[in-house]
Amino acid sequence: MIEIQPISKPIDATIRVPGSKSYTNRALLVAAMASGVSTLTGALFSDDTRYMSAALRKLGVEIDADEKRATFAVHGNGGKIPISGAELYIGNSGTTSRSLTAYVSLGHGRFVIDGDEPMRHGRPIADLLDALRQIGVSARTQFGNGHLPVIVEADGLTGGKTRLDVSKSSQFLTALLLIAPYAKNSVEIEVLGDRTMPYIDITRSVMAAFGVHVINEDYKFFRIESEQQYQPRVYNIEPDASNASYFFAAAALTGGRVTVEHLNLDSAQGDLQFLYILEQMGCQTAASDTGITVTGPRQLKGIDVDMRTISDTSLTLAAIAPFADSKVTIRNIEHTRWQETDRIHAMVTELRKLGVPVVEHRDGLEISPAPIKPAAIDTYEDHRVAMAFSLVGLKVNGIRINDPECVSKTFPDYFQVLRELY
Prior knowledge:
The chain is an alpha/beta fold. The protein contains 13 helices and 23 strands. The chain has two domains: 2-18 and 239-421, UDP-n-acetylglucosamine1-carboxyvinyl-transferase, Chain (Alpha-beta prism), CATH 3.65.10; 21-223, Enolpyruvate transferase domain (UDP-n-acetylglucosamine1-carboxyvinyl-transferase, Chain), CATH 3.65.10. The chain has helices at residues 21-33, 47-58, 94-103, 117-121, 126-134, 171-179, 198-209, 241-254, 274-280, 314-320, 343-353, 383-390, 414-418, and strands at residues 2-4, 12-15, 35-41, 62-66, 71-77, 85-89, 108-114, 138-141, 150-155, 160-165, 187-192, 215-217, 221-224, 234-236, 257-261, 284-288, 291-295, 303-306, 328-331, 358-361, 364-367, 375-377, 399-401. The strands form six sheets. It has a four-stranded mixed sheet with strand order 2-15-17-16, with helices on one face. Strands 4-5-3-14 form a four-stranded mixed sheet, covered by helices on one side. The chain is globular and about 60 Å long. The model has no long low-confidence stretch (mean pLDDT 96).
């Protein structure tokens, strides 16, 4: 448990957040498929990226890691998997589980992917397996329940046409796109379900940087021509916009100013759209060559917002919502019920513990302003719950975060960086 100390005046700070998890894990896998050595700079070192790099090593990829310099050197195998089977453990990393399930289909042999209890019960994978089977992959869940463990009896990737439902996660589509260049035939993917998927822009950005072109028809249809290959290169990972959101929100809460270094508005990271939500709540934002700055108002305004495309930051908004001058409504985030935890239920439960009136909906919640009472916040093994609700402690005494170590999933030094605001 850690208790957050309130800040008595508007903050004025310049912060550096670590590299993006989304970019780091995609780049690790793409570099593993390239022919030659790639160097990833500014990379994130966290639980999720360690699980990805450890699994790739077990699959025969040589990876040299320098955490102090935030660098991975990846010796790619040209789309080949040199071992004939493996049992892989991916902790609580959704990105890793989905991407590796697809990646091992390039090999020959029996591969098992397993993870922590939340992965075995809360994070679905059946839609990805269905899409893989349509392009020649023998893949199933061990217990027939649509969750890990997954067993892949791999014999190379045939390719062809497949249909994929992305309603529960765009990570399914990311997994297919990343491996598609190494199929025997071109891969065509028809996308079903909600097609508002900013994380797919990140996937395409990484693929393009390593030399692979994806044909995209309005996010309804994708085609990846066969015989393309990833080219090794030096690749810089940009800071994580999702993790930057907590520091932007800290400026909003305290009426202060925070600059997050090395972020820019040209990024493919959809969570930068959180800046426009803060602007609607009364904040000022500014971008420069050195980073992005948010300046908070004297009083935050209430807002009604659809957060489907930036749902990771819905928890950030929920944490600052009780300090607005009117109700905050968060809509269209039902898919977050199948993430690290049921995030809607977690937000509702912890806000009510703080004395905040909340109405829970199937796909969102309504949060009314209220005085906050001290409480110990449960984090559900979810890094974003811990980081978001720590913000409440910047304004109110007696806010304690249980299991703060869960932030190691994507931001191991979060609480040390938070102290830089004081």
